[in-house]
Design brief:
By secondary structure, this protein is mostly helical. It folds into 2 domains: 61 residues, no CATH class; 30 residues. Helices cover 78% and strands 0% of the residues. It contains 4 helices and no strands. α2 crosses α3. The longest helix is centred in the middle third of the chain and has 24 residues. The protein is flat, with a radius of gyration of 19 Å. The protein starts with a helix and ends in a 7-residue tail after the last helix.
Amino acid sequence: MSEESACDQVQRLLGELLDCEVEAVQARVLREHVAHCELCADRQAAEVHVRQIVRERVQQRCPSPPNLRARILVSIHRETLTRISKTGKSTRNG
């Protein structure tokens, strides 16, 4: 892979890479490239910075209820227990 095509690939897949939506092998290759390419490292840093600003602004304008995280975790736990009782196996193990 040439440096130019590697940079193009990082630029095209940067959002998916940061969202952990890239296959593990491809993510490793992309991260390795970013570690050795100043241009791509700068692009990644800028994207991370923009995402942080957006996250902060959204939280300022639309704060979630204080117990929302706990309610979501309880709901996930209940759903997991329901699936285990119906299938006899954990959803983590397939």
